[in-house]
Specification:
The chain is an all-alpha fold. The chain has 4 helices and 2 strands; from the N terminus they run H-H-H-E-E-H. Strands 1-2 form a two-stranded antiparallel sheet. Helix 3 runs antiparallel to helix 4. It is elongated and about 65 Å long.
Length: 175
Amino acid sequence: MLQQEERVLLRHGKVILIISRVMAVIAAGVLGVMMILTVADVAGRNLFLKPIEGTYELVGIMLVIAGSLGLGYCQLNLGNIRITVLSDLFSARGQAIIFLVAYIIAAVTTGMVCWQGGIRAWDYIFKTLGGIIVTLRLPLWPFMMLLAVGFGWACIIFLIDIYLTAKEVFRHGSD
């Protein structure tokens, strides 16, 4: 029989998965646009001696968007790199403790990036000078906001992983 908090987590798990998938699809679309833009820029530079203006800045911004929006989905599927050379030497409880510490560090880090990205976006909204992509004259704040949203969502996924892993640590007792 599932306990109350497991039922709540399962019920919200579908919503979390849908939101993560939507963010991952957006990230994949941005990666596709990045690829097309880069190919067009190289082709324009080599064939017509005319590169696309601002490609360097756009690719950099799109990389931030794709990376931050795809991070939560990647963690949800445990697709992030996990080196298990040392953790395989430990018992199930020892492994859970190692992963718990790693998830705590990741949650703190993604939370800090979200917080600082939000602060930076707020600063860019109200800046009279700066806060724009120089070549294209685009404002930077929407991109910083997307960075904050992506890392904030990843932080939520890590917090869920912390909860589930902590339950695993205490379930094994003194293994």
